[in-house]
Amino acid sequence: MTNQRSASPQHTPVTVVGLGPMGLALAETLWGHGHPTTVWNRTPEKADRLVTKGVHRAETVAEAVSAGPVTIMCLKDYETMYEVFDSAGDALKGRVLVNLNSGTPKEAHAAAGWAAERGVAYLDGAIMVPPPLVGHPGSVFLYSGPRDVFDEHRATLASMGDPRYLGSEPGLAVLYNTALLEMMYATINGYLHATAMVGSAGVSAVEFAELAVGWFLPAVLGPMLAEEAPVLDRGVYPGDLGTMEMNLNALEHIARTAEEQGVHTGQPRLMREIASRAIADGHGGENYLAVFEVFKKATQAP
Ligand code: NAP
Question: Which amino acid residue places its CA nearest to atom 21 of ligand 1?
Answer without folding.
Answer: 42
